[in-house]
Design a protein that fits this description.
This protein has about 500 residues and is of the alpha+beta class. The protein has eleven helices and 23 strands. It is globular and about 65 Å long. It binds the ligand C=C(O[C@H]1C=CC=C(C(=O)O)[C@@H]1O)C(=O)O.
Length: about 500
């Protein structure tokens, strides 16, 4: 999917001209603590924005292939980071301050609002790789939606004088992957999974400890997670992994958060909450069934599960264990949303969400919010649902903390966006990989309730891990790269 003409290098002086014309009248009206955004219509078309060099960019990518929605955010015009028990109120306060002085020029009447992207870790303690909770107004936000393309350029009031240079600089991350960097060419290489029998046994032991805690009556559900590490010969290219995720999981929400040298990517089936014009939608998703894959499909070393994963070929999704697992999430989501809503409805029977390799039970909640309830209040009330934490919520969190259950980066936290009117959406960051150079690590967990079988739960995490591992293993170079390669071979470059 090629870039819209106005973003091509050859059009940069025209882009500068248009941006300068829109920016000049706004400069006098913005306070230093405020922000300016300019939205330009880029015409009809579709773009997945995967012609981006994620390995060197501060980028945020979000896609819903089935709904033809693709967003790419580059750079940071404004950034707020937080941690600790008040992280969501802190982000909310910072965003409220910003939106009060946010000038927006919708030059071509696109009707689109400028937006910030956000993400947060499962727990509220500082951790490595990504800030615990962060909100970023990107310098450039590119949106491809339902066949229409747009770009929003943003800066803080403080940095408005040099803004156009900064915006054009951010665009240099686009189109770079065409230029044959070694990292991008190494896509599709074989990944070696680093077996770690000790960690596998530790997972089984934690599941047993969770079952003991549940049997003692203090807890009803706990989500226990594990990580696997993979190693490639060359640096792993990010864009081909995202393309592979998009091709394999078109019904999921795909996300990538990158900074130079590191990327957190994934394809999640679970929405935490979406807010649009005062109506909130939230998923209660849990319970998993799957069918064993034919051996022929396991083409790579990386996708071969260790022996401990041997388990029955499939589970019945509607069995008692899966129903109880999902029922805890339903109860918690209802309890969290009830005080925030004038009216709250839920789909009656859990529906079966069918994904590529597995299925989940899902109940969808729709709530009409009371005044003054925004996206951050919804996140604070809902996170962590028992789909990633446990039941009762506080006891489960304390149990997980006491046993040092580690959740790296934003795995089982949230990723999303919020626009200047307060509408937005956050998904639960599942089925993910953390990629740094030649190394990747993937994370997955399983809900444990009375009656859970440790070996079966291990097998379930293997199927969940496969979503990211398969994309890492089967990522193909983008078409443009293949074309570049053949041009290089024939000396036409
Ligand atoms: C915690 C994960 O999945 C959650 C979402 C759906 C089903 C789940 C389950 O059946 O255990 C988990 O609650 C994960 O993918 O790492």
């Amino acid at each position: 999917m090629s870039l819209p003409p106005l973003l091509e290098v050859a059009q940069r002086s025209e882009l500068r001209r248009r941006l300068n014309a829109r920016l000049s009248p706004l400069l006098a009206g913005v306070p230093a603590h405020g922000a300016i955004s300019i939205t330009l219509d880029l015409g009809y078309g579709r773009c997945d924005w995967l012609d981006t060099d994620f390995t060197s960019a501060q980028a945020f990518w979000w896609a819903r292939p089935e709904s033809d929605e693709w967003r790419l955010a580059l750079g940071q015009a404004l950034i707020v980071a937080s941690a600790g028990p008040n992280r969501f109120p802190a982000l909310r306060a910072a965003y409220a301050g910003l939106t009060a002085d946010w000038l927006h020029c919708d030059a071509d009447a696109t009707g689109l609002q400028p937006a910030a992207h956000l993400g947060f870790a499962f727990d509220d303690e500082e951790q490595e790789q990504l800030p615990n909770a962060r909100l970023v107004v990107p310098a450039v936000l590119l949106v491809s939606r339902h066949g229409r393309l747009s770009a929003t350029f943003s800066c803080s009031g403080r940095d408005s004088e040099a803004a156009v240079d900064g915006w054009v600089h951010e665009l240099s991350a686009l189109g770079r992957s065409r230029h044959g960097k070694r990292a991008e060419r190494s896509a599709g290489q074989q990944l070696l999974r680093q077996e770690n029998p000790l960690a596998d046994r530790a997972f089984i032991a934690r599941v047993r400890a969770a079952l003991a805690g549940i049997a003692a009556g203090r807890l009803q559900k706990l989500v226990i997670s594990r990580s696997v590490r993979l190693e490639a010969q060359h640096a792993i290219a990010i864009a081909p992994v995202l393309a592979a995720l998009a091709a394999r999981h078109p019904a999921c929400t795909l996300y990538a958060v990158s900074r130079p040298g590191f990327a957190f990517v994934g394809a999640t089936p679970e929405r935490l909450v979406a807010l649009s014009a005062g109506i909130a939608r939230a998923d209660a998703l849990a319970g998993t069934s799957w069918a064993a894959r034919p051996a022929a499909e396991k083409t790579s070393d990386a996708t071969t599960a260790p022996a401990a994963a041997a388990a029955p070929a499939s589970l019945r999704l509607e069995d008692d264990k899966n129903s109880r697992e999902q029922g805890h999430v339903v109860d918690a989501v209802r309890t969290a949303l009830t005080p925030l809503c004038r009216r709250l409805t839920q789909s009656q029977t859990p529906e079966v969400l069918r994904l590529r390799d597995l299925q989940h039970l899902r109940t969808v909640f729709t709530g009409e919010l009371t005044d003054d309830v925004g996206l951050f209040e919804l996140i604070a009330a809902l996170h962590p649902t028992p789909a990633v934490g446990g039941t009762p919520t506080h006891a489960a969190r304390a149990w997980l903390r006491a046993r040092r259950e580690r959740r790296a980066a934003w795995y089982s936290g949230g990723v999303g966006w919020i626009d200047a009117t307060g509408d937005g959406e956050v998904v639960v960051a599942l089925r993910c990989a953390r990629i740094a150079g030649r190394h990747a690590a993937c994370d997955a967990g399983a809900g444990i309730v009375a009656g859970s079988d440790p070996a079966q739960e291990f097998a379930e995490t293997e199927v969940k891990l496969a979503a990211a591992i398969d994309a890492l293993s089967h990522a193909e170079p983008a078409t443009a790269l293949a074309a570049d390669e053949s041009a290089a071979r024939t000396g036409t470059q």
